[in-house]
Amino acid sequence: METENLSVLLLHKHPEFLRACCDLINDEWPRSETARMMSLQASCDNLPTSLILVSDAKQILGHLKLTPIPAIPESCFIETVVISKALRGKKLGSFLMRRAEEYCKNVLKLEKVYLSTKGQENFYAKLGYVICEPISIYGSGSPNSFKLSPSRNKVEIPVPRVVSIPTGVPPPPPPPMPETSVNNNTINTIKSNKTFMFKYI
Ligand SMILES: CC(C)(COP(=O)(O)OP(=O)(O)OC[C@H]1O[C@@H](n2cnc3c(N)ncnc32)[C@H](O)[C@@H]1OP(=O)(O)O)[C@@H](O)C(=O)NCCC(=O)NCCS
């Protein structure tokens, strides 16, 4: 597909594409429209930033979102990469990714971009991404700590209740550790079912 008729735009500068962008993403990953719109409306000049691929006929063809990684400030995380179903395999995804990398390097002055995927490893490998250790996109933890999905992989550490114990009575045993894939050594060993990849830009 000819790319000279295509533009990559900042979604928050073009709110006229908000609704269509919401539909494009929800067509791939169905989610509440309200939640999706709120997420897209958070796009701003500082991260998070949604970039959209638009044709000269003012049709939205693709989207991706850049989010911050607090523990690795010279980088960002690329997520929700999607091309309109009817237009896949025409290099539009590659075009959007490359434009996003240029934006990260030249405008945001970043050095690296990270992403995670399950099934699209070859697509990203062709763009120069290599597999890396899982990273956390939450908080300011170690770069080696894992990205925990708030809903599915959340590790809840039980907080013991404070109770008054009569003198001479041994305290009750501590509660059992939560059922997770955490092993005895470190939280860093939580398994992720996604492949993490990164690229120097
Ligand atoms: C993944 C996606 C963004 C790729 O966009 P696209 O425009 O179809 O990809 P391109 O045409 O730029 O493909 C570039 C290369 O990657 C390859 N490729 C694309 N998708 C691939 C896949 N799923 N598996 C293996 N290779 C793939 C293409 O064959 C092409 O290879 P070539 O250069 O040798 O011809 C698009 O298929 C999509 O929206 N998928 C559904 C949403 C999704 O899974 N997003 C990724 C979330 S991590």
From TrEMBL:
It comes from the Eukaryota. It comes from Loxostege sticticalis (Beet webworm moth). This is N-acetyltransferase domain-containing protein. InterPro entries: Acyl_CoA_acyltransferase, GNAT_dom, NAA80. Residues 8-153 form the N-acetyltransferase domain. The lineage of its organism: Eukaryota, Metazoa, Ecdysozoa, Arthropoda, Hexapoda. PANTHER family: N-ACETYLTRANSFERASE 6, N-ALPHA-ACETYLTRANSFERASE 80. PROSITE patterns: GNAT.
